[in-house]
């Protein structure tokens, strides 16, 4: 069984020393267990946080243990009454080619509903993150302006489409012209800003948001967010979903302080994790599935191939190489 473990905790951007490739026996499948062959592995920005030994909403990864994460696999041996060989399941199998799971660790996927990979994004964690962060905290109303950073990524691309469904004017900020064109041409965003090439993000925001910003869905933090904060309207809402621009910083960056802005604008800024909404996942997944089926939502995937490329694919998130959800295909059905 090929596995990838955490060899050392990274300072700054992870590199080759962070990860180690190891080979282990798969082990024996016991009564009530299933053996899963991994098909797709999800790489996610929050995993960077788990590489550090700090208290958070999820446990840090342990040194020299398999890196944990969401995956999809096929059951190749079953000693469970609930599952049979050939069933497709999702769960936290981590960065390894095979995984022996107990029944409660996996959720079965119905491949007839949508491509199985959608369970790792639009019908899974990142779709639910978009859904609850935007609707429960952002609460966009028809005619309002919603700005999204990290807009062409897995979460951001869904946030913008849901905001359009709710009748908002949607402006996305992303890191390339190809991404901005994707937002406008394929997802019907009203405007897009390439933060890497703009000389003046504040001026671009003013131009793209003539009526100001009512909802700012923040995926990136840092200077991009500082700029958006200057354009808020009264009673603006700011779901703080992620701060990827700061995850690899060696020294914490504080940036402009926002209290006065929040006071002057009576704005609401609220951090959240998707886990806060676990009691409502069924509701969210049902609505996302319905919109997908009705053609009101679409998605893009960036798929890298090969188990050996998982660490590099993970780093691609920080290089902005992905449009939509970044996945690694590691096995064939
Ligand atoms: P994405 O698919 O958006 O991939 C990450 C993207 O971030 C890259 O494509 C890149 O796009 C952008 N990025 C990378 N570095 C920077 C930088 N320095 N400045 C600005 N943008 C950068 O990932 P996800 O959709 O999975 O996650 C998006 C955000 O949501 C992350 O911050 C993540 O931590 C957070 N998240 C939070 C959850 C929660 O429960 N609160 C759950 C899931 C995700 P570009 O080319 O535009 O720079």
TrEMBL record:
Protease found in the keyword field: no
CDD domains per the UniProt record, alphabetical: PGDH
Keyword Zinc-finger among UniProt keywords: no
Signal peptide region: none
Database matches in SMART domains: PKS_ER (SM00829)
Domain (Enoyl reductase (ER)) ranges: 12-328
Gene3D superfamilies per UniProt: Medium-chain alcohol dehydrogenases, catalytic domain (3.90.180.10), NAD(P)-binding Rossmann-like Domain (3.40.50.720)
UniProt cross-references to Pfam families, sorted A to Z: ADH_N_2, ADH_zinc_N
InterPro entries linked: ADH-like_C, ADH_N_2, ER, GroES-like_sf, MDR_fam, NAD(P)-bd_dom_sf
Molecular function per GO: oxidoreductase activity, acting on the CH-CH group of donors, NAD or NADP as acceptor
Alphabetical UniProt keywords: Oxidoreductase
Alphabetical list of SUPFAM superfamilies matching this protein: GroES-like, NAD(P)-binding Rossmann-fold domains
Protein name as it appears in the record: NADP-dependent oxidoreductase
Organism of provenance: Lentibacillus salicampi
């Amino acid at each position: 069984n090929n596995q990838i473990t955490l060899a050392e905790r990274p300072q700054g951007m992870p590199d080759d020393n962070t990860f180690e490739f190891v080979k282990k026996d798969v082990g024996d499948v016991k009564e009530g267990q299933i053996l899963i062959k991994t098909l797709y592995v999800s790489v996610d920005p929050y995993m960077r946080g788990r590489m550090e030994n700090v208290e958070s909403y999820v446990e840090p990864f342990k040194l020299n243990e398999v890196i944990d994460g969401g995956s999809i696999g096929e059951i190749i041996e079953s000693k469970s009454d609930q599952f049979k060989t050939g069933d497709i399941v999702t769960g936290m199998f981590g960065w390894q080619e095979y995984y022996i799971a107990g029944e409660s660790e996996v959720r079965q996927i119905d491949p007839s509903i949508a491509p199985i990979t959608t369970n790792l994004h639009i019908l899974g964690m990142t779709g639910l993150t978009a859904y609850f962060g935007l609707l429960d905290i952002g609460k966009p109303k028809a005619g309002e302006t919603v700005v999204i950073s990290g807009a062409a990524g897995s979460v951001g691309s869904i946030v913008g489409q849901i905001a359009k469904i709710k009748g908002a004017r949607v402006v996305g900020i992303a890191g390339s012209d190809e991404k901005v064109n994707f937002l406008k041409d394929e997802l019907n965003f009203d405007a897009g800003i390439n933060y890497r090439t703009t000389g003046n993000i504040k001026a671009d925001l003013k131009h793209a948001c003539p009526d100001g910003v009512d909802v700012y869905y923040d995926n990136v933090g840092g200077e991009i967010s500082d700029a958006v904060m200057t354009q808020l309207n009264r009673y603006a809402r700011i779901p703080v979903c992620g701060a990827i621009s700061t995850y690899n910083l060696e020294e914490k960056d504080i940036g402009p302080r926002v209290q006065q802005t929040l006071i002057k604008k009576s704005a609401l800024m609220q951090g959240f994790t998707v886990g806060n909404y676990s009691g409502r996942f069924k509701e969210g997944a049902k609505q996302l599935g319905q919109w997908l089926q009705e053609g009101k939502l679409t998605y893009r995937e960036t798929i890298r191939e090969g188990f050996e490329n998982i660490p590099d694919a993970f780093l691609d998130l920080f290089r902005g190489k992905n449009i939509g959800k970044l996945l690694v295909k590691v096995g064939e059905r």
